[in-house]
Amino acid sequence: IADIAMYAQKGKQPERVLFYNHQLEENLRSKVLLQEALNNALARHELRLVFQPIVDSRTREIRSFEALLRWKRGTQIIDPSVFIPIAERSGQIVNIGYWVLEEACKTLAHLPAEETAISVNVSVIQFQDQQFLAKVNRLLETYHINPARLHIEVTESLFHSGQSDLTDKILWLQRQGIKISIDDFGTGYSSLSVIQNLNIDFVKIDRSFIHKIEDKGLAIVEAVMNMSHSLNFRIIAEGVESEEQAQLLRRCGIHYMQGFLFSQPVEMVDVFRLSGSRLLHPAPESV
Ligand code: C2E
Ligand code: MG
Ligand code: MG
Ligand code: MG
Question: Which of 13, 37, 66, 90 is the most buried (most CB within 10 A)?
């Protein structure tokens, strides 16, 4: 609205201003509607989790699954990239996030392969919640989960959120045995210094770098690879779609891969079926 006022003040094309105003209002209205609908989504069982396998680069055995939220409202499917930001701005992500964590723990409790982990995306907003550590702890106890099987994915933005007790919180989680991953690495404001000070377990290189691995992406992948040796974290490549990408990543020494080449996110029943198995045959070592 402020932009439009400024635009109008400068006396430029009033009819275009009207157009933008209309669009803005439409967007705002649909956001408010979605936010209201999201209030009932949990109670109406409109939310569910799907799980995308993460494989060992060498053997292509499934090591973990990333839990990803899906929202289906009647026949309408709303993308996480649309509703997660809305839920973050309204604070609804806190309750939704606890539901996600509980579902992940329930799934873990029923998974036969003891060594399989589940990775959960935790929003900055939820990380800031006073109850966060206590609730995570309670879930692990309730479902008798080995904490090493729970991975928490946070984005670089967490490290610029100004939380004073951030390091303590991360340390506490890791002391329980929980593993911490940095998601979408490389897309945020540089967190190299942060990684240096924290003992991060996994770094997930954003798929935008993997998609241009045959071009400029390779330099980034190699740089992160070098860092991983000195800072002692493991690397997951996100968004691996082709065998060529997979082989390049393998040759770089990347530890784990995730992407449509191996599997789309799958339903919970398929987690039980796939757990502990191998996806695709590994490429020959000589390639
Ligand atoms: P993310 O955490 O980076 O998750 C990976 C996204 O990449 C997923 O999109 C996944 O479906 C997609 N993806 C996986 N492999 C490939 C591939 O080979 N090619 C391409 N093009 N895409 C691939 P999705 O499920 O739409 O989720 C989008 C984002 O929404 C997630 O990005 C995450 O930031 C957020 N999100 C999803 N579930 C949750 C949740 O439970 N809590 C929170 N706070 N955020 C969530
Ligand atoms: Mg993620
Ligand atoms: Mg990611
Ligand atoms: Mg990403």
Answer: 66
